[in-house]
Design brief:
Elements: H1 7-17, E1 21-25, E2 31-34, H2 36-42, H3 46-49, H4 61-75, H5 84-91, E3 96-103, E4 109-120, E5 126-135, H6 145-166, E6 170-174, E7 180-183, H7 185-191, H8 195-198, H9 210-223, E8 225-234, E9 240-251, E10 257-266, H10 268-282, H11 292-309, E11 312-321, H12 323-330, H13 332-348, E12 355-360, E13 363-372, H14 375-393, E14 397-402, E15 408-413, E16 416-424, H15 431-447, E17 452-455
Parallel strand pairs: 16-17
Antiparallel strand pairs: 1-2, 1-5, 3-4, 4-5, 6-7, 6-10, 8-9, 9-10, 11-13, 11-16, 12-13, 14-15
Helix pairs in contact: 1-6, 4-5, 12-13
Length: about 450
């Protein structure tokens, strides 16, 4: 399972990890964030206060009135005895520090030092307020508090950025239109671009398939989150990296969409491993030709193509003559060398669009497509290919073997083949039936002495 890469989860972890109280409110003072330290200090759970209580409701009423009167005198303007008594200076862009008595859940009053600042969106509109609260019940000097809080806030910002930068994923944020607004170092490495180059540019520009990348952003906006969406990152130096794109939308305190947070994890090695496993499952490990499993799939495709085009296809089934004698005399390793060379020779006799497969043991199969609409013409073309294969396979083989005393030497081996051919048109029979036809024709060729070609349904042999 992939680890969580959500920026929300990261920020929540940071808020709960600090040892001072963090409270965030909306513009009306209703609590939106209430970290673990706040729960411990004031006795409420986050679920009891978030979107349910305002800061005023957990403060001592006399404190609110006192703070409102104090601000009213200072600004020569009547400030109401409500949340605005706390947020007025912050709303004017001034960080405010003051002492405040809170009402703990158990009814006991707790004196604390509060630092409040405004929270703004990308358009500098105030969307809420952040309060850093420290317990002052033991009489910490108020003069020391601003410096302490500034240091704590600076440390929090440093820790937040450090955690983001230490992530193994390439992290980025975009606006709803897909324009990048922030990135981490991994994103710079992935794209070979600096943070300054990336911010303000379209997200899609850094992926090979622009349309798919843009569709990824749109999918997040419609579904709210996306998991394991594959993209290929395209770096400035041309390097391509397959990544798993995981993303979710994010909003301000008023629920207004701000954009998309995304993480791109390099899965190139995983994709290579998957491809290797697939190749092993579908290819013969000795000759690297398609194996019997893949043969059935390709034959089915060829038969479907024949149905669409109205042209004949052919299946050539061949078996090596006297192969067992080579294994008995020189061993299976020498037999493997012969099979590898046979695979090369057969492949050199056909078109790139044709399929050569190892059926098993010393049996090979060739699929020919688009031979023609007339059976006579198609039979002639298939026979030309089969004869070319038969002729090339009977040429002498020079095989390098190792003797019992570890000395290498070359031996010359002569080998022929028995070849059966079955033509097919349309999709009138199964793949197994076509293979059976060609196999039967091959045995007819072998029964006639080998080194020959026999067509299924025809009595003559080449």
């Amino acid at each position: 399972m992939e680890p969580k890469s959500s920026i929300f989860a990261l920020k929540n972890a940071i808020c709960d990890g600090v040892n001072f109280c963090v409270i965030a409110t909306d513009t009306k003072g209703v609590i939106q964030v209430f970290n673990a330290a706040a729960e411990k200090m004031l006795g409420y759970s986050a679920g009891e206060v978030i979107n349910k209580l305002s800061l005023s409701e957990i403060s001592v009423p006399e404190e609110i009135i006192s703070h409102a009167n104090s601000n009213s005198v200072e600004v020569a303007k009547q400030i109401p005895s409500e949340f605005r008594a706390f947020s007025y200076k912050a709303s004017q862009g001034i960080k405010d520090n003051f002492m405040l008595k809170f009402k703990r859940k158990n009814g006991i009053h707790l004196q604390a030092f509060v630092s409040i600042t405004s929270l703004k969106d990308d358009q500098s509109k105030i969307i809420g307020y952040l309060l850093i609260v420290t317990d002052n019940s033991e009489g910490v000097q108020i003069a020391d508090q601003p410096l302490l809080l500034d240091e704590q806030l600076s440390n929090q910002q440093f820790y937040t950025r450090s955690l983001i930068e230490s992530n193994i994923d390439a992290l980025m944020a975009t606006d709803p239109l897909g324009t990048i607004t922030d990135v981490n170092k991994q994103m710079e490495l992935l794209t070979n671009c600096s943070r300054e180059e990336l911010i303000g540019t379209p997200f899609k520009n850094y992926f090979s398939d622009h349309d798919r990348a843009e569709a990824g952003i749109k999918l997040v906006l419609s579904e709210k989150k996306v998991r394991d969406y594959e993209l290929t990152a395209h770096a400035k130096d041309g390097k391509e990296t397959v990544v798993s794109y995981n993303a979710s939308t994010f909003y301000d305190q008023n629920g207004i969409l701000q954009g998309v947070f995304a993480a791109a994890r390099d899965i190139t090695k995983r994709k290579q491993a998957e491809q290797q496993i697939l190749n092993l499952a579908l290819h013969d490990p000795l000759t690297q030709l398609p194996n019997r499993r893949m043969l059935n799939d390709r034959l089915s495709q060829a038969m479907a193509s024949s149905k669409r085009s109205g042209q004949y296809g052919a299946l050539i089934f061949l078996d090596l003559d006297l192969f067992k004698s080579l294994n008995d005399t020189y061993g299976h390793n020498t037999g493997d060398l012969l099979l590898i060379e046979v695979a090369h020779r057969i492949s050199s006799c056909v078109r790139e669009v044709d399929i050569v497969a190892r059926f098993g043991g010393d049996e090979f199969v060739v699929i020919l497509g688009n031979l023609g609409t007339e059976i006579s013409e198609s039979t002639s073309q298939a026979n030309i290919v089969a004869e070319k294969i038969r002729t090339l396979l009977k040429s002498p083989y020079l095989l390098k073997i190792e003797t019992a005393d570890k000395v290498s030497k070359l031996i010359e081996h002569h080998c022929t083949s028995s070849i059966g051919v079955a033509l097919f048109l349309d999709h009138e029979v199964s793949t197994d039936e076509v293979i059976k036809w060609a196999d039967m024709a091959m045995y007819k060729a072998k029964e006639s002495g080998g080194n020959s070609i026999h067509f299924y349904g025809l009595e003559t042999a080449s």
